[in-house]
């Protein structure tokens, strides 16, 4: 946030640029906001703006000095734009959510206070959608995660509305809780429950940057089972069913006990109902995680999510990214690399994450890779339902490292005998 000072009549007043279009000002101990209707031409660094000019709207607002707009630009008071935006958001939520939206509505000012003006020191993460900050709200008093969506990012008004509605209407222990949202002016902000351990990606694929220790085998299986239960709820309990469409490690959040919750529902889609077999839609999602039939035809089913789950589960087993251009050409794509290895059980151990240091149950590894292979089958009809995946993972979770390793030596001898036949 850039701050510049304005001098008038011996008083010093502050302009705090919260974004490219939103300004907070402090004058005579009064806090206020106004919006610049369009980005000032040719200026990206607001620290360089000369604030010593006046404008009619500034006088009407009781604010004596502001940025001089170009001839075709005006400075509008925030309530003119805010009331229209809030009314649109509220009407759409009421219409599509049928009045059952329970999320709290926050003002931008409240969230500025909660995050200390979106202080970079409070930033938890950043992606194509925007930035996430740690915040503290007073009503109700709690620590929250505040996701400020990027106006130029992929998540627009529709995705914002979808996420508010989905997370307000769907409730499960493995879905993140939406505390509230803000639609003031051009702001699109979502307020979630705070998840102490960040995302699965932080602990699996970004260990060095985030200074994390690798997850042990049992924790990986716990996270996989919980994430699978979240998808099972969306596919088989929600009515109508919901296709998540963006299942990946960065969207799986972890609480202090590493219980997983799915987040980021902006791309979620209501699934086929009745005699329908699929939903036809524009291809969205993250490269590498999309099911092949969806990527080719735009035909979306719950089995598309099953494929994405298989990709993430394989990442959890191997410790590899689905797309990694730092590796040799034949290993760029995780699924392509793993496909021939799936066919030879003797090579299963080659797929185990080296950071596990061999501390995994051999039976568990075989079973986990079998589940991943089933989810990654080319034909959607051949993939299991998520309820079947949950059953398999719950059984898998009962096989602990210590218990299984007692039988490891005998099983390896048995495997050697089979290979000789």
UniProtKB/TrEMBL annotation:
It is an enzyme of class 2 (transferase). Keywords: ATP-binding, Cell membrane, Kinase, Lipoprotein, Membrane, Nucleotide-binding, Palmitate, Serine/threonine-protein kinase, Transferase. CDD domains: STKc_IRAK. It catalyses: L-seryl-[protein] + ATP = O-phospho-L-seryl-[protein] + ADP + H(+); L-threonyl-[protein] + ATP = O-phospho-L-threonyl-[protein] + ADP + H(+). ATP binds at residue 147. One of its GO terms (molecular function) is protein serine/threonine kinase activity. It holds the Pfam family Pkinase. Residues 401-421 are annotated as: Disordered. The keyword ATP-binding applies. It is found in: Cell membrane. Residues 410-421 have a biased composition (Acidic residues). Its main location: membrane. Its EC number is 2.7.11.1. It comes from the Eukaryota. Residues 118-396 form the Protein kinase domain. It is a lipid-anchor. Belongs to the protein kinase superfamily. Ser/Thr protein kinase family. This is non-specific serine/threonine protein kinase. It comes from Eruca vesicaria subsp. sativa (Garden rocket). The lineage of its organism: Eukaryota, Viridiplantae, Streptophyta, Embryophyta, Tracheophyta.
């Amino acid at each position: 946030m850039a701050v510049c000072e304005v001098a008038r009549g011996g008083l010093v007043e502050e302009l705090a640029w919260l974004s490219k279009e939103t300004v907070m000002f402090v004058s005579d101990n009064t806090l206020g906001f106004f919006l610049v209707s369009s980005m000032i031409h040719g200026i990206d660094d607001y620290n360089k703006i000369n604030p010593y000019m006046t404008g009619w709207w500034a006088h009407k607002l009781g604010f004596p000095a502001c940025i001089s707009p170009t001839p075709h630009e005006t400075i509008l008071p925030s309530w003119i734009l805010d009331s229209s935006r809030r009314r649109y958001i509220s009407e759409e939520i009421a219409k599509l959510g049928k009045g059952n939206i329970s999320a709290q509505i926050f003002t931008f000012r409240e969230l500025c206070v909660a995050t200390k003006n979106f202080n970079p020191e409070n930033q938890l993460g950043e992606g194509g959608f925007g930035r996430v900050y740690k915040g503290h709200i007073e009503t109700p008093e709690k620590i929250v995660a505040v996701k400020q969506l990027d106006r130029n990012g992929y998540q627009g008004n529709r995705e914002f509305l979808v996420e508010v509605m989905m997370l307000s209407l769907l409730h499960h222990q493995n879905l993140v809780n939406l505390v509230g949202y803000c639609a003031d002016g051009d702001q699109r902000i979502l307020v979630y429950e705070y998840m102490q351990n960040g995302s699965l990606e932080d602990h699996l694929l970004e260990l060095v940057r985030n200074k994390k220790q690798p997850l042990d085998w049992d924790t990986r299986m716990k996270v996989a089972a919980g994430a699978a239960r979240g998808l099972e709820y969306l596919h088989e309990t929600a009515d109508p069913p919901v296709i998540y469409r963006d299942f990946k490690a960065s969207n799986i959040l972890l609480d202090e006990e590493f219980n997983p919750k799915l987040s980021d529902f902006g791309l979620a889609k209501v699934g086929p109902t009745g005699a329908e077999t699929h939903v036809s839609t524009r291809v969205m999602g993250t490269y590498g995680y999309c099911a092949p039939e969806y990527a080719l035809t735009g035909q979306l089913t719950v089995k598309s999510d099953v494929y994405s789950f298989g990709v993430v589960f394989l990442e959890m087993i191997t410790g590899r990214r689905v797309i990694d251009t730092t590796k040799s050409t034949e290993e760029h794509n995780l699924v392509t690399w793993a496909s021939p290895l799936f066919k030879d059980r003797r090579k299963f151990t080659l797929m185990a994450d080296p950071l596990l240091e061999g501390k995994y149950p051999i039976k568990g590894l075989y079973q986990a890779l079998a589940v991943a292979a089933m989810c990654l089958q080319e034909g959607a009809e051949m993939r299991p339902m998520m309820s079947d995946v949950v059953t398999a993972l719950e059984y898998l979770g009962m096989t602990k490292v210590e218990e299984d390793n007692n039988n490891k030596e005998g099983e390896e001898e048995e495997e050697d005998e089979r290979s000789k036949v």
